[in-house]
Structures are given as structure tokens and as C-alpha cells.
Amino acid sequence: MVTLNLASTHPINPTPSTQRVLTISELWRGLVLKCHKPQLFVAEMSDCKVLETHENGLKRIVTFKEGMGPPAGKAEEEIRYFEPLKVCLLFWTSTPPLQVPVAIDRAAERYLVETLTHRRLRIHIYGAYTQAEFHMPLTSTRIVNIISPGPKHDSDPSDLYLTFTFEWHFPDLEAGSKQAEEKRRQMQELGTKTVGHTIDVLREMAERGEL
């Protein structure tokens, strides 16, 4: 049994570049669209049927092209997505200052600004992130798509990154074997390609006014 935990991160708006800049709002809408219509983003998928939806996600059945995906050619997936949250640093007036990062939504931001600033606390809200989590119960596969701010995001809102994390399980592989290492290489290559392709598709959609 081999479990592969892999990740790949790409800049969404690399500089210098003449490409159209993608905003956090466009990326969020694109991420939700990817949850509903993954075949627009993943070449190996041919169709998707949404079984049910709720406020923070959905359940779907994805159909893969012949010879791709699981043996049955279909996979049921449970998805949770989180609309853009801000990341907040709380500074207690101690020596040295104590810093606590907290992910907050708009309501929590208002609460912090209105109440905690009067309690020996300073606040710095420095960015936003959003993510979608994909879980396949049958294989225990788990994939997370994360949009996060870069180090220059405060002065440049286009400084954004897209990260995909992958948790894949291969019960027929032996840990440390050549087959396992080759599978790791293949899946890392696939993950890296998928992140870049997703950004390309989102940019094309934005240029056509579809986001």
C-alpha cells in the first residue's frame, strides 16, 4: 500500500506578462464552476452529473473518458468549497508581541474591528484565500484547490497563487519499490500539468467574459 501526498503551486498572474490579469472574484467563480463542470478543466473527464447541492458544496458523479479514471469509468465525489476568507493577524500588546493568524469571514472581520481593537489588541488583515476540497469516498482520494495571496498582495492585488494538493492511495504498490517511485513521478507531473491547465482555462474564460 502506497499513499502519495503531493502538491503543486503556480503563480496565477506571473510578472512581467502581457496576459490578462485574473481577479480573486473571477477565480472564485471559476473554482465554483470547476466543481459543477469539471470536464471543462480536466481533459480526462467527459461528463458530470450533480446529485445534490448545499450551501458549501455538492455531491457529483464524474464520468471519465475511455481508458482513464477508475476501472468503472465513473467516480462519486463529495465537494466542499469555501468562499473567499480573509487572513487576519492578531497582535497582543505583549513583549515580544504575540501573533496569532486567524481565517475570518466578513462578519468576523467586523466583530474584530469593532470590539477587539479596544482590548489591548492590534489587527492586521492582509489578504484573502479560497479553496475547494474534493473527496472520493470509494478510493479515499482527496484533492484540495487553494487560491492564496502572495507576499506582495497588499500592494498588488494580482499577486495570487493556485495550489493543488493531492492525496492518492495505491493499494497494489509496495512502498519503496521502483513502481512506487515511477507512480510518484507520474502523479507529480500530472498534478503540475493540471494546475497550469486550470489557470489557462480560467484566463480564456475571463477573456470571453464567462466568469
Overview of the structural elements:
This protein is an alpha+beta fold. The chain is 25% helix and 43% strand. It has 3 helices and 8 strands. Strands 1, 2, 3, 4, 5, 6, 7 and 8 form an 8-stranded antiparallel beta sheet that branches. A hairpin with a 4-residue loop joins strand 6 (121-136) and strand 7. It is globular.
SSE blueprint and pairings:
Blueprint (H helix, E strand, L loop, with lengths): L1 E10 L12 H13 L8 E10 L2 E8 L9 E19 L5 E7 L1 H10 L5 E16 L4 E9 L10 E11 L7 H30 L4
Antiparallel strand pairs: 1-8, 2-3, 3-4, 4-5, 4-6, 6-7, 7-8
Largest sheet: 8 strands, antiparallel
Taken in chain order, the helices and strands follow as: EHEEEEHEEEH
Helix content: 25-40%
Uncertain stretches of 5 or more adjacent residues: 86-105, 117-127
Distance between the termini: 41 Å
* Mass-distribution shape: globular
How many helices?
Answer: 3
Structural class: alpha+beta
How many beta-strand runs? 8
Mean pLDDT: 79
Radius of gyration: 20 Å
> How much strand content do the residues show?
35-45%
